[in-house]
Amino acid sequence: MSASPVPSSETIISELQAIVGNDKVRSDAEILFSHGRDWTKAHTPAPLAVVFPRTAAEVQAVVKLANALEFAIVPSGGRTGLSGGAVAANGEVVVSFDYMSHISDFDPIDRTVVCQAGVITEQLQDFAEERGLFYPVDFASAGSSQIGGNIATNAGGIKVIRYGMTRDWVAGLKVVTGNGDMLELNRGLLKNNAGYDLRQLFIGAEGTLGLIVEATMQLTRPPKNLTAFVLGVEDFNGIMSLFNRFQAEMDLTAFEFFSEQALQKVVAHSGVPRPFESTCPYYALLEFECLNDEVEAQAMALFETCVEEGWVTDGVMSQSLEQLKNLWRLREDISETISKWTPYKNDISTIISRVPDFLEAVETLVDAQYPDFEIIWFGHIGDGNLHLNILKPDDMDKDEFFEKCGTVSTGVFEIVAKYGGSVSAEHGVGLLKKAYLPYSRSETEIALMRQVKQVFDPKGIMNPGKIFDL
């Protein structure tokens, strides 16, 4: 019995056009390049085509066609990831959710809303705000990232300390599995102990089990009178001491940190003023609800205590919404600012109490191997998540730079393993961290992940090569 002939590119594109329409299948070079990649630059995008479905039924039909013709699919959201999870470099068909951006079925009693996968994060935030509610998962790319991608990578961001990860706000999911089945998971229930919660498998699966087409998202009450400190600190132990003191006595909505090097670049690039004249090796940004004069007095008393203890050398507290926004820009503008240096980025985490020793070990390693590289640190101390950024020297070729940084990665991830951390706190594993997954997951865990994928995606067509190889 002869093998079935491999369908031509023309056949695949023609069949896709029959599903979504001629104008919703693109194969021009500009679209292939823009939609075949994420924010990473280590792989050259080379998809076969980009398809733009408008409904869950069209997505299901595309997946069934992929099974019949045996072509691979790469889901594409806002493409703001940093692990290569949305890269299509081997002739795959990219499924873009740009046209699936409808919000519906708002329920003020349950505080839930149904979002198609292509809803922009900021779009959901604005929708909630207009109705006196709040969607709390927030990060610098909120203006372009999509809810489906947030769920697929279990995005965290700047307010995890108070509100948790994306996972905590997904009340239900509609997904198309790798073999083309449409599943409605949990249906918005708060309490549902009827067997396995398959919804949780798709959250953080990076599109390797199937495609998220719709999500029921939970909303909450908005915080009131958010106020922030930016505090200058001499060393990382001081940051942890003031974190411990404030956390013990106040409900914080965020606790971030960044280095003086990061601050200098943001101030030079964006024109945002320094928080105060003195310079410090590190800065902590902590945010809380200043509900009344009593809370404000308590916050100021804690600040004075931290100064007396020698943990803080200078500081400022926001007195207006504009000042609050400017203080946050010192932290949130870092990624955009340093992008001109083509940074090697590592998004790693450990248990909060281990962060100072963890950071010191990583910095010592990088300084020893490449003393001329500039390191920019920032991150979410409130959840143990550090962002390591190594800037490319202006006179070094990009490929040479990434090769040298790749050599460092093994040492960095050995430190991650030593401290019981994760090689990916955010953005997922994708292509870039696939080789390092064993530093965070055991052989048994990875073997079970492969078995789970085989159940939902028996032909291996969903985002192949991401997280692990089959």
Explain how this protein is built.
Strand 5 (103-107) and strand 6 (112-116) form a beta hairpin. The model has no long low-confidence stretch (mean pLDDT 95). The chain has 15 helices and 16 strands. The protein has a seven-stranded antiparallel beta sheet, sandwiched between helices. The protein has a five-stranded antiparallel beta sheet with strand order 5-6-9-7-8. It has helices at residues 9-20, 29-35, 56-69, 121-130, 147-153, 160-163, 199-202, 236-249, 260-270, 293-308, 321-332, 334-338, 355-369, 398-418, 443-456, and strands at 25-26, 49-51, 73-76, 93-96, 103-107, 112-116, 170-177, 182-185, 210-218, 226-233, 252-259, 282-289, 314-317, 344-349, 374-380, 385-391. It is 35% helix and 20% strand. Helix 1 (9-20) packs antiparallel against helix 3 (56-69) and helix 13 (355-369) runs antiparallel to helix 14. The chain is globular and about 75 Å long. It is of the alpha+beta class and 470 residues long.
Write the layout of secondary structure elements.
Elements: H1 9-20, E1 25-26, H2 29-35, E2 49-51, H3 56-69, E3 73-76, E4 93-96, E5 103-107, E6 112-116, H4 121-130, H5 147-153, H6 160-163, E7 170-177, E8 182-185, H7 199-202, E9 210-218, E10 226-233, H8 236-249, E11 252-259, H9 260-270, E12 282-289, H10 293-308, E13 314-317, H11 321-332, H12 334-338, E14 344-349, H13 355-369, E15 374-380, E16 385-391, H14 398-418, H15 443-456
Parallel strand pairs: 2-4, 3-4
Antiparallel strand pairs: 1-2, 5-6, 6-9, 7-8, 7-9, 10-12, 10-13, 11-12, 11-15, 14-16, 15-16
